[in-house]
Write a structure and sequence with these properties.
The protein has 467 residues and is α/β, with parallel strands linked by helices. 22% of the residues lie in helices and 27% in strands. It has a 16-stranded mixed β-sheet with strand order 1-2-3-4-5-7-10-12-15-14-13-16-17-20-21-22. Strand 16, helix 8 and strand 17 form a beta-alpha-beta unit. Helix 5 packs across helix 6 and helix 7 runs parallel beside helix 8. The radius of gyration is 27 Å and the shape is elongated. About 5% of the residues have low confidence.
Length: 467
């Protein structure tokens, strides 16, 4: 190592250290701190990281990226003895732009090394930071006050990615506290704690953000599910949208995916503003394979779909910026029971469509169309679901048990809209091997009809977080 450092002369260095590197080797870096451009600690111990920082006060004029994946193999009773240095770590790095702090453990590290290392967050100060990534997995509480303090001390931040798999404490955070980040562009916030991601987001104001994703991950190991906390209540949502964009929402996409194992359900609701602002709310339900003795789950999609759809529909209807929606996209990848067998689902669909429009585009991708096209019987009579005025309707790869009945239902919908005086200007059907003469069947009731033979492409898990 000494020979290689001598050969490097004054060239920039990328350094990766781990718990296996002896202190004597790390000491050889002391004369070369001015050359370090990237510094990464891989499953290293906090004692070694602090020791390196104390022995190398810098300066680090070339250091651009600091990555720490820290761990310490300790017993539970010794956890409280983990105390950080009283001095800021790596403080003499004025040009540091990217900081990644992870708590993930290696297979060789004990369970209790699921760290409390997020308590060290307050010991890093990088005023010129533009990218920050934090990943926490712990049996201890995560204190939001430290995260807010760190963000407030980093006014140049443009991208923040945070994943917290731990219970969350808002102790010490005043209700009205607001961290303003004027340069903010992207926020990915994923938590396992109910509604905490929305509460954290409500304490941050960044109206210049272009992409905001707020995701709740829930891991279950029982056959019984509690109420899904999939989307924020109106008060939290009203605060969030006003702090992340002031533009009206013109496009909304609802995407629901059920299965396969271990992902039980993914649901996301994405809002687009005219100036390319994107706000995505998401919910992921996954089976907990890691918990010892957990039984296999038997959860029916028909038990999840109504509540997911209802929660998402309520957000769309109550969104203060959704008064001028021009494009509505609905995606799902599974067959649900017919609308006669899911109480209230047709009413939810009707309520959603009555709250939007007129629409320039309505796209339904891989949807079971029965809840949308076939309302339940009331005293033996079916009251049709009236779609809002729609300029262009696209039905792509409909999920329907019987193809011919599906096509007949679509024709019936188009005819019904025409009879009610709100005809579609254009209808496009995209599916594998569409029935013959489909365009001819639609043409009398619509301005223009198109039918394309296309192959189905599966919907992804829709997890926007790269962590």
């Amino acid at each position: 190592m000494k020979t290689l450092l001598e050969r490097a002369k004054g060239s920039p260095l990328d350094i990766f250290a781990s718990y296996a590197d002896p202190a004597s080797a790390m000491a050889l870096l002391t004369p070369h701190t001015k050359q370090i451009k990237h510094l990464g600690f891989v499953y290293d111990q906090w004692d070694d990281i602090q020791r390196f920082s104390a022995a190398n006060p810098g300066p680090f004029p070339l250091l651009r990226t600091l990555a720490i994946n820290a761990a310490k193999e300790i017993d539970e009773e010794d956890a409280d003895e983990m105390t950080p240095s009283s001095l800021p770590l790596f403080s003499n790095a004025p040009n540091l732009t990217e900081f990644r702090l992870h708590s993930e453990r290696s297979p060789s590290i004990s369970y209790f090394a699921l760290l409390r290392h997020f308590v060290f967050l307050g010991h890093f100060v990088f005023p010129n930071l533009t990218v920050f990534e934090l990943s926490v997995a712990s049996v201890k509480k995560f204190h939001v006050s430290q995260l807010l303090d760190f963000l407030e001390a980093s006014p140049m931040l443009r991208t923040v990615r945070v994943r917290i798999t731990a219970s969350i404490s808002f102790g010490g955070v005043p209700e009205g506290r607001l961290v303003i980040l004027p340069s903010f562009e992207t926020l990915y916030l994923v938590t396992s704690d109910c509604e905490s991601h929305y509460v954290i987001a409500a304490h941050i104001s960044c109206t210049s953000a272009k992409h905001t994703s707020l995701i709740h991950e829930k891991f279950v190991d029982e056959n019984r599910l509690t109420v899904l906390e999939s989307f924020p209540d109106p008060d939290w949502w009203d605060r969030i949208v006003r702090q992340y964009t002031k533009s009206p929402v013109e496009e909304v996409t609802l995407k629901i995916k059920i299965g396969p194992d271990p992902i039980i359900a993914c649901c996301s609701l994405t809002f687009w503003s005219p100036d390319a602002v994107v706000i995505r709310l998401g919910f992921k339900l996954a089976e907990n394979y890691e918990k010892e003795g957990s039984a296999r789950l038997h959860i029916r999609s028909s038990d999840l779909y109504p509540e997911l759809f209802s929660s998402a529909s309520s957000i769309i209807q109550e969104d203060p910026l959704s008064v001028n929606i021009k494009r509505l996209n609905i995606y799902n990848n599974f067959l649900v029971l017919g609308s006669d067998q899911i109480p209230g689902i047709a009413d939810e669909v009707r309520s959603l469509f009555q709250s939007v429009g007129p629409l320039e585009e309505l796209t339904m991708y891989c949807c079971d169309l029965r809840p949308y096209l076939t309302p339940p019987k009331s005293r033996g009579v079916r009251k049709p679901i009236v779609f809002p005025p729609v300029r262009e309707l696209t039905i792509s790869h409909p999920s329907y048990p019987r193809r011919e009945e599906c096509m007949a239902a679509i024709v019936g919908l188009v005819k019904s809209q025409h009879v009610q005086g709100v005809p579609f200007e254009r209808v496009t059907i995209r599916m594998e091997e569409p029935p013959a003469a489909m365009v001819e069947r639609l043409s009398p009731w619509v301005g223009a009809a198109y039918c394309y033979n296309e192959r189905y492409v599966a919907i992804g898990d829709d997890d926007p977080s790269p962590i």
